[in-house]
Design a protein that fits this description.
The complex is a heterodimer of chains A (about 160) and B (about 200).
Chain A: H1 2-15, H2 17-27, H3 31-48, H4 58-73, H5 88-96, H6 102-114, H7 118-128, H8 133-140, H9 144-162
Chain B: H1 2-13, H2 23-30, H3 37-58, H4 61-67, H5 72-97, H6 104-144, H7 148-154, H8 157-204
Classes of the chains: A mainly alpha (about 160), B mainly alpha (about 200).
């Protein structure tokens, strides 16, 4: 019986592992930390799995637990490898010249998101995942209006990081 | 924001580049032990409960006889036992309430609640321990001087002052050591949780 449950869980997680990988990508900056967080999320998902009744979609349920783990349960290791930031000045000059490729702009955006705090990262993540404000508010435990307001503030903040 | 929508498209395109774990990889991960901060907070609070029990044992009547401790110390242990049982129950309840299925805010709230219980418990322990320590010190000292009657007869204001000051200082040292350990253990684990909780609170304003 337990074995059946294990089998079912691993299969479902394997099929939906992208969600967890994406969260790891936003919250960590090196492969080791990525793997660590993935593991912690897997453990938390498994612990919560008996309570998963299937009345929600497995993936929806996963978003919640995985984000909870990233924000509240995961112990970030203190030693963090310095991310090799490309000189932002260089990029700004290029931005003025309107010479930048889409690729560069995107990588700047990813860097900017890394500078947000845990809660803001969660909102951006759900936004990027194309979740509507109702779903965002449900996952975060805030009202829909607050989710909207916060998202607007984050956009403003990102703009400030990109064009200081 | 134009850029963020651009990113949204890219984000969905990038799914192909994500790492892919096999069934075996995930199965192995699932069986590992969690190392989350909440788990550690729970372990430490259990440890503290143990500390509370040690304090009671320390003031146990048998030990009291050897040290010639006064009767009122017994009352301290009598008070402590129901208090301890109550907190043991609360700790367990709090830990059970911390479930990842809640929303982020709900989860953080239950963690903060659990923390509040531990803090209350620590403060209570420190107050009880501090009071017991002051009274015991004064009592033992006076007894060594030949008992209350002789002491009152011979003592001058200076003696009273010395007893009082030394008792207070000794107690303060004990309390500071305990408080230091406490801050060291929890301060480290709680910093990020508190920060995130504040961020969520800010959102509600």
């Amino acid at each position: 019986m337990t074995h059946d449950l294990e089998h079912k869980f691993v299969n479902q997680l394997e099929a939906n592992q992208n969600i967890v990988h994406k969260i790891c990508k936003i919250y960590t900056d090196c492969p080791d930390a990525h793997k660590d967080l993935f593991q912690e999320i897997t453990i938390q998902l498994w612990k919560a799995y008996p309570k998963f009744r299937g009345d929600a979609k497995f993936s929806t349920w996963m978003y919640r637990i995985a984000l909870n783990t990233a924000i509240t349960l995961y112990r970030k290791s203190k030693r963090r490898l310095p991310t090799d930031n490309i000189d932002p000045v260089l990029y700004r000059v290029k931005a003025i010249d309107y010479d930048d490729t889409e690729e560069q702009q995107l990588s700047l955006m990813y860097d900017a998101i890394k500078q947000l705090n845990d809660i803001e990262k969660a909102l951006v993540f759900l936004y990027l995942e194309d979740k509507n404000y109702y779903e965002i508010s449900e996952t975060m435990g805030i009202t829909e209006i607050n989710a909207r307001v916060k998202m607007n503030r984050i956009k403003k903040k990102l703009r400030n990081i990109l064009n200081p | 924001m134009e850029e963020l929508d651009l990113l949204k498209k890219d984000w969905q395109k990038r799914e192909k580049n994500l790492p892919k774990l096999s069934y075996e990889d995930i199965y192995k991960m699932m069986l590992r032990k969690s190392s989350s901060s909440v788990r550690w907070i729970f372990y430490i609070s259990i440890l503290e409960l143990g500390l509370g029990i040690l304090i009671i044992l320390f003031y146990h009547p048998n030990v009291g006889k050897q040290l010639q401790l006064p009767n009122f110390i017994n009352y301290f242990s009598y008070i402590s036992i129901p208090v301890l049982l109550y907190f043991a129950y609360r700790f367990f309840q709090n830990y059970r309430n911390i479930s990842t299925t809640a929303s982020v805010k709900g989860l953080l709230e239950s963690i903060m609640n659990a923390r509040r219980t531990v803090r209350l418990y620590i403060i209570l322990n420190l107050v009880l321990g501090g009071l017991a320590s002051i009274f015991t010190f004064i009592y033992v000292y006076i007894n060594q001087q030949g008992g209350w009657d002789i002491f009152v007869h011979e003592a001058q204001i200076k003696d009273y002052l010395i007893i009082f000051v030394v008792a207070v200082i000794a107690t303060l040292i004990v309390l500071f050591v305990l408080l230091g350990i406490y801050l060291l253990l929890y301060g480290f684990l709680m910093r990020r949780l508190r920060h995130n909780y504040k961020e969520l609170k800010k959102m509600e304003v």
